[in-house]
Each structure stands twice: as C-alpha cells, then as structure tokens.
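User: Here's a chain of 240 residues. Predict its fold as tokens.
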Amino acid sequence: MPKHGKKYREALTKVDETRQYQPEEAIDLLKEIAFAQFDEAIEVHARLGIDPRQADQTVRSTVVLPHGTGNVVRVLVFAAGEAERIAREAGADYVGSEDLVQQIQGGWLEFDAAVAMADQMGKVGGLGRILGRRGLMPNPRSGTVVRDPADLPNVIREVKGGRVEFRNDRTGIIHLAFAKKSFTPDQIRDNLYAFVDALQRAKPSGVKGVYCRTLTIASTMSPGIELDVTQTLANASSVA
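Assistant: Prediction complete.
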C-alpha cells in the first residue's frame, strides 16, 4: 500500500469514517480538507446494487450540470453540407467528415467530446476502438448522435456548458468529476443533486433490492466523505 503524505493524513483526521454525512455538511468539510495548491476536481463515486455482468442492468446516461464542470470543453462534430455550416456557427471547435476520421486514425485526439450527425456514423463507426476506450464515441443513448441538423446548436451548447455522460464500471461503480474546488458550496450542491437525480432516473428496470448503496465525494487529493444516501436522494428529488 502506498504511504500518504502528511497533508492527506491531516485531512483524514477530520473525516469520521464511521459516519454518513448530510450533503451540505459533507461539502463544507470537503472544502475545508481539500489541500492541494491547484483547483482540484471534485468527484462523486456511487456504488450500485446492480449486476454489471447483465446487459439489462447497465447504467448509462447523461446529466446537464447546472454550473458546468469547470473545464473548457473542446467539441468535435462529424458533419457535412448544411449540418457542417450549422455546427461551425454554433461554436463547435472542430467540424468535418472523412478528413477528421483520417486525423483521428493518425493519432490526433485534441478534443474533449464528439458529436456526429446520424448520416456520418457509417464513417465514424470504424473509430470505435480508438474513441470508445476514451469515452469519446458518439452514441444515441448519450445524445451525441443527431438526426436533425437543427438540433445541433442545442447539443453543442449543452456539451460545452456541462452535459456529461456517466456509466458504471465492471464493478458496478460510477465515478464522475462533477465540480471544481473553486466552486461555491451551492454550486457543488446543485451539481451533485443534478447527478443524483439523473442516476435515479437511469435505474434499470431489472434491478432488484437497493439500487444506490453508497455515495462518496472527494477532491482529487483528499480522502473520501461518505454521504447519507437516503437524505441525498430525497434532497435531489425535491429540487429536480
């Protein structure tokens, strides 16, 4: 086991690992113990009562975070013709078709999110092995495959403004960076509740028993703080 530094150990002494914290209390504590000199990401980790081996229990969805992620998002759009013009005018950072496919096949990946017109998926499909492992592959379930060019401006605006995709890993846990240390407690709370509400809405029908078993928040360098799941779910539902 790697040894933690002095600042981490000091932060850990302020976290009661036997408790489940109320969301607002946990956020205040997180702000207090986040000790790094850079603007750390704040992450939520949700352990779910799903069987990740079963296809009908996969959890995959998107959420529009009210205050964004704190990151500048470079959006690439696969489009041609009129859709290409609309995407450029809507603020996409990179727009193209076969030219972008060739660049990506050559190793270029200087973007953070990808959107594709449905008529481009025949060309984009071959990039699955490159983009899929990085979470960049356009997908209808995440709203990043668009059929009507008129919908492109809204999709691009949401992706740039804070729409993020989440999905469970092979152990049934979802990890999502949803805020920055520099955010106010209210901004962190709003983003947290938006995610939790979206997580509840994404519950597969085949899941039996307790769906959301634990919720933990942490900054990049700090120890985790476990949330009171029942209260967090109730709060998120009330503000949705």
